């Protein structure tokens, strides 16, 4: 049912977002001009940062496997993340997580319950760090502390409940020190995301402070939790516009920076797609055989 709702709503939200962007840009030509002034050097820097962001994703995969004393080679890890990123953006219903779970079960004997557990750990760290970003640059210290503690407690309760229901007890073979590596990979990923947003905002002429960029990043990250579209298209922009009281970045800068971000990320996916085709990722990963014995 959820997948059906997502498949219906996703194209509607994307179409509405494109229409809203077009209407906004038509009435605000200065935003278009700000994009036209972005130098090629900024685009090159953004591509380089997104490559590092992708490396952080590969480190996350390695850390998640380490939790169960599993590993995969570097080439396999890179191809696995390239392929899952591509089908998550271009595939039906954002099928990247489904592919990741099926692949890890088939190739590395990671059960669906184990995969979900490490995914929840990642989301828990993601929520806590994003809450810190969202508040640390815009709210008093005591409010920041309350929000971060609330995010941490909520994440721990959800993870503990799932662990009990999935029967992942002491005998489940979990290597708990490796959980720290998941935290480290998550922190690296979100730190790089903040730098990317900072470059984009300054590239379109929004001279946001470090605190504003952190708040902007935190809000944008929380949009992914209700993502019904690839890359949270439309959802992230709405979150950022409705939370301007936190980051104080203008609507024009939000629109311009997000157009720059979407374009850069799409270019990265095209490059990754060419790499995947050139290296025959589908055949090397054995994607066609994943449905066997499921």
List keywords for this structure.
single chain; 294 residues; mainly alpha; 76% helix; 0% strand; globular
Description:
The chain has helices at about 1-25, 30-35, 40-65, 75-90, 95-110, 110-135, 140-165, 180-205, 210-220, 235-240, 245, 250-280, 280-285. The chain has about 290 residues and is an all-alpha fold. It has one domain. Helix 3 runs antiparallel to helix 8 and helix 3 packs across helix 12. It starts with a helix and ends in a 9-residue tail after the last helix.
Task: Please render the helix and strand layout as text.
Elements (H helix, E strand, L loop, with lengths): L1 H26 L1 H8 L3 H27 L7 H17 L5 H13 L3 H25 L4 H25 L13 H25 L6 H13 L12 H8 L1 H4 L3 H28 L2 H5 L9
Q: What is the helix fraction of residues, given as a range?
A: over 70%
Low-pLDDT stretches are none
- Average pLDDT across residues? 86
Number of structural domains:
1
Please tally the helical runs, counting DSSP H or I stretches of 4 or more residues: 13
Rg calculated over all Cα atoms: 20 Å
Quote the beta fraction. Answer: under 5%
Sheet with the most strands? none
Global morphology: globular
Termini Cα gap = 21 Å
**Number of extended strands:** 0
Structural class: mainly alpha
In N-to-C order, the SSE pattern is: HHHHHHHHHHHHH
């Amino acid at each position: 049912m959820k997948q059906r709702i997502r498949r219906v709503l996703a194209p509607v939200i994307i179409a509405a977002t494109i229409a809203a962007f077009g209407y906004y840009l038509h009435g605000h030509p200065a935003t278009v001009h700000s994009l036209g002034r972005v130098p090629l050097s900024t685009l090159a820097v953004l591509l380089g940062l997104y490559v590092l962001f992708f490396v952080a994703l590969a480190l996350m995969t390695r850390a998640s496997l380490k939790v169960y004393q599993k590993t995969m080679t570097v080439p396999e890890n890179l191809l696995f993340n390239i392929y899952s990123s591509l089908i998550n953006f271009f595939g039906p219903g954002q099928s990247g997580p489904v592919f990741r779970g099926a692949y890890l079960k088939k190739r590395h004997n990671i059960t669906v319950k184990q995969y979900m557990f490490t995914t929840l750990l990642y989301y828990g760290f993601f929520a806590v760090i994003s809450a810190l970003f969202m508040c640390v640059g815009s709210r008093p210290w005591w409010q920041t502390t309350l929000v971060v503690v609330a995010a941490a407690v909520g994440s721990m309760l959800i993870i503990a409940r799932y662990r009990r229901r999935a029967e992942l007890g002491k005998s489940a073979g979990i290597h708990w020190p490796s959980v720290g590596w998941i935290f480290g990979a998550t922190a690296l990923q979100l730190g790089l995301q903040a730098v990317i947003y900072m470059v984009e905002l300054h590239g379109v002429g929004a001279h946001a402070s470090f605190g504003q960029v952190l708040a902007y990043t935190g809000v944008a990250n929380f949009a992914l939790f209700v993502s019904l579209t690839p890359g949270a298209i439309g959802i992230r922009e709405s979150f950022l516009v409705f939370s301007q009281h936190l980051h104080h970045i203008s609507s024009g800068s939000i629109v311009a920076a997000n157009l720059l971000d979407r374009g850069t990320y799409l270019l990265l996916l095209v490059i990754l797609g060419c790499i995947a085709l050139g290296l025959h990722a589908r055949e090397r990963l054995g994607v066609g055989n994943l449905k066997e014995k499921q």
